[in-house]
Design a protein that fits this description.
With about 110 residues, the chain is mainly β. It contains no helices and eight strands. Strands 1-2-3-4-5-6-7-8 form an eight-stranded antiparallel barrel. A hairpin with a 2-residue loop joins strand 2 and strand 3. The protein is globular and about 35 Å long.
Amino acid sequence: MANALGYINETETGFEGTLAMMSLTAPIRIVRNDRKTAEKQPDYRVYAGQPSADIGGGWLRTAASSGREYVSLTLSAPMIGPRKLYATIAPVKGQDGRHVILWNPAD
């Protein structure tokens, strides 16, 4: 079962929207990592709050079943809690450019 952690809209540089969890609501930006120099570095950097704090990264992945590309997120910050939080970005059906951040407890 997937739980929505927030909704974002696609932008020229990545995504922007709101991260909304039980104890936290903050603006979020997911921006392409133009400084990536190695394969293991994230394809995206994740920033939240005002002023923006770097809270994680995003990696482009390909789904085994459908072959579709998606972004896998790893978030870590004191405001989130003591453990890393894993999520994926998925498009919202029927809403062009709108995406949902889905908690992924399996990672």
